[in-house]
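Recall that a protein's primary structure is simply its ordered list of amino acids. Everything else, from secondary elements to tertiary packing, is in principle encoded there. The following example makes that idea concrete.
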Amino acid sequence: MREARDKYFDINGFGVDGGYSDAWVDFHIGPLYCPFPNTKSRIRAVKVHDLHHILTGYQTDFIGELEIGAWEVGAGCKDFAAAWFLNLSSLGAGVLFAPSRVYRAFIRGRSTDSLYGRPLDDMLGRTVAEMRRDTNVDASAPEASFADRVAFAGYAVAGLAVSAVAASIGVFVVPVGLVTGLVRKLRRAPA
């Protein structure tokens, strides 16, 4: 997993440490650039989230992030508050922008196990194949049960509410992040 994660960082341009040490994270929604603070809670969650990308194959583009968010909600985020907030936001946005894809990802997540709560170093020492078997991620997603559909509806409503909260926070955070990002770029520019 460690080697796969390093390759994932490289392919996606995340830097050697995946951006974990960065003070700010740049999130892109189409042409919109939305920087936000890289909190300890987010870093704790994203270290596992990145491994989920490797196991599930969901991409790091806009739609892929909506899918992985729905998958993680379906699989469960344990006590990772930032993961719940970010993933519910993704699921809520996914209901609007890619409803069938996030629904399939959520149903897939319901039949698999997430890595949240497992020791990171132990996971990084295992192979991708071992982790896929351990989480049941390679299994075909079963037909959605009534309980799965009800759970999706409930999480979708919660996700839409969390997305609305995130958007209202974004109205204040994004301008600060844009100014901070501009200052960072100017400081790095050659004199």
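The two ends are 41 Å apart (CA to CA). The first strand starts at residue 24 and ends at 29.
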